[in-house]
Amino acid sequence: MRCFLLTSSLVSLATASPLAARAYDYIIVGGGAGGLVVANRLSETNASVLVIEAGGSGYDNPNVTAPDGYGLALNTALDWSYPSVAQRGGSTHAMHAGKVLGGSTAINGMSFTRAEASQIDAWEQIGNSGWNWQNLWPYYLKSEKYQVPGSEQIRGGAAYEHSFHGNRGNLNVGYPDEQAINDFLAPLNASYQELGIPYSPDVSGGAMRGFNVFPMMVDVAENVRSDAARAYYFPFKARPNLHVLYDTSVTRLFWGDDDSEGNAVASGVEATGVDGTALALTANKEVIVSAGALRTPAILELSGVGNPDILSRANVTTKVPLPGVGENLIDQINNGIYYATPNNKTYKGLANYVSYPNVTDIYGAETATSLASSVRSALPGLAAQIAAQNNNATNASTLLSLLEVQHSLVFDAQVPIAEILHVPAEHFGSEYWGTLPFSRGNIHIASSDPSSPATINPRYMMFDFDLDVQVGVAKFFRKLFATGSLAGLAGEELEPGVATVAEAADDDEWAAWILQNWRPNFHVLSTAVMMPREMGGVVSDRLKVYGTNNVRVVDASVLPFQVCGHLTSTIYAIAERASDLIKEDAGIQ
């Protein structure tokens, strides 16, 4: 009997590529940004490629396609909504991630911003040879198909530097037809400049500080979201060597004999259809895990790759002892502040207004210098705390060196420490988050049963400075709306409001409000981090899982540090480079 029975749960295969074999050269676990880029590039060759996606297509689902539809897919069948354990302040949270072809690119806010160049250079600084801004830059451009804004979009604030963008890539990037034209943009920009934050026409070139009107991942002509599936799969689904298996969850990798150097060799994957049908599929060359930062580590652990103590407690036999799996989880925290619009006016259109201030912008030079000293002195204690919580997967000395790299990014390189996103609608709504939290958490399986949820503990704000940044940005935000012509345009503060947090509130009062009102930012990364193995790394600088011969990870799990911009553009670039590395290692073009 063929091992991939076409049950009713797999009927959607008829709209994708029908399964043609039980064995493929490359099996890719997860059809998100990383997985679909790699699938596309490998299938440009003669290699046979299978993508296994836990969700469905989403092609015509308006909760996916609408450029103004962010939030519609959350807490639906398109969203994993992984539960966290209780965090600081006592709250638990749903951790949103896309369960649909395209992954989180199908449900996110479509924001297109990149990273500060020094942040990417830091990857090489900690031992990842070849991973620097100069080497990644061509892949940023390769992935992008920039759509030049028209006159109406320019009136709405669209601006760009041509050399910062690619025009031959798969991913459509541009300003939607619904780009807002309003009386909010000019005073907002002017007030930022009064506070010393410059206007930056385009933050895509590696220098992000400033106020900007950013583009989105949209197909302007079709007026639809440009997600990974629309960019890298649907236009190419007729390729005879490219296949997608929908509605099927990979439960674990299975192993053959070790190679001559003692490295584990994955023979393929076990998976389960939505109706419980068991599948076993063979990989002739490699298995590439691209299931996202909240699923990839669980799949590795279920496969016997991870910390032996954790695996033993979950009744999983260790195949590759790799204590870093699931550790180093980093996410940001998000708060919202809102002001009334003049005469309760409702603003129409998509307004992509953002600022990226650095630590000096938020605190002033004198306080920033003082903070640099106090934060540095607290890092050894934080490193010891993280090491104690991660079973010494990364020892305190190594953790301290990593935290010091991040400290240097914040205080020496002055990379933006926050993102402030403005979305005028029924009110002047804004959300903000610290971009570079020092806190580290983890995700681990608790059972050998793949259907049992993993334990997710991001440990948000375990380091007080992360909370202090939220406080500092909130106070800056209130100052912004009291500055220049913006002060005359905006009405009363609605959230939190001065009745809740008084004008003269101290940091403790602001912190109390933040702790009661924050949410995760869903920019989770680092749970299968690219780093030398002796430092607690999970994958090498060729993205190969240590101790294995033919297993790689290509998704947000591998990023060692947060980036200032939204993750998606950087994941696309990583996946484009990963594709070349895989081809190079296989000797294929």
From TrEMBL:
Residues making up the signal peptide according to the UniProt record: 1-16
Cited Pfam families: GMC_oxred_C, GMC_oxred_N
This protein's UniProt keywords: FAD, Flavoprotein, Oxidoreductase, Signal
Entry annotated with the keyword Oxidoreductase: yes
Coiled-coil residue windows: none
Active site (catalytic residues): H523 (proton donor), H566 (proton acceptor)
Keyword Transferase on entry: no
Family named by the database record: Belongs to the GMC oxidoreductase family.
Protein name according to UniProt: Glucose oxidase
Species, as recorded: Lasiodiplodia hormozganensis
Lineage: Eukaryota, Fungi, Dikarya, Ascomycota, Pezizomycotina
